[in-house]
Amino acid sequence: MSSRRRAGIAGSLATASFSAVLVLACTAVADDQGPGSDKGGKAVDAAPTGVRLRTLLPEKISVDNSSKKTAITATVKNEGTEDSGDIRLLVVGFDGLKVTGVQGCSAIAEKDLPEGSNSGFSCPVGPLAAGKSKSYAVQATYDLSKAGKICLPVQTTDGKKTFWQQGPVPFGTTNPSPNAPATPLLLGTDNKPVAPGGDELPKTGVGRDVLPLGAAGAALIAAGAAGVWWSQRRRQEV
Fold it and tell me: What three-state secondary structure class fits 195?
């Protein structure tokens, strides 16, 4: 992907041309994942009056050590008092975590993925009534020799505004279990490699401030010591 001019912490999540590949309903169901959490999330563009959107991820997931497969529940919620209007949810994987399917959603074409990500799906949420939520069954694989992150932006359907973005937030463990059937991972925890003798997590991904989303120039912005990323509209060039 060609390099693009950085724009500080002002970026855009503009309309992206997705090559939509309809994903059939996934049959795998995540085990007990504990309560949902909005850890690593931040409001970005101002939502309409009376609308308060956020996403939730499980506090814990489990990775099968043989197949490397895992299942994650991603939830978008309107905690406001008014209908959200038409919105969409993106589910994007980074580093060791690769999203392989999201029930009822369409794959984002490789050329339109944010730089540094390895997979992504676009989910048409539609209007979300006040106090209501919608959950999606996310299928993924996790290479436990690497870090693994997931990102959930909530946008207008044209991608011009991002009301909320959770992540990229890590799932990981500081106590790997290579000989166990499965390895439990916790949200917001940097992963320690399972590989024998692995004292240090390999550096993966692209350490840039701006991750463009395909030709449309949409971006995920890295900011803050905690690694919270969000997206904002690009300032109009003078």
Answer: coil
User: In whole angstroms, what is the distance from residue 193 CA to residue 106 CA?
Assistant: 31
Structure tokens at 110: 């490789």
C-alpha span between 235 and 238 (Å, rounded): 9
In DSSP terms, 149 is beta-bridged to 94, 170
111-129: pLDDT as tens digits: 999 889 999 999 999 999 9
CA-wise closest residue to 194 among 210, 212, 215, 172? 172
* Beta partners for residue 168, in sequence order: none
Provide the whole-model pTM: 0.72
CA distances from 41 to 22, 38, 58, 146 (A): 27, 6, 13, 22
Helix (H) or strand (E) holding 111: none
DSSP state of 114: B
Residue 111 tokens read as 């050329």
Query: Which tens digits make up the pLDDT trace of 145-181?
Result: 999 999 999 999 999 999 999 999 999 999 888 889 9
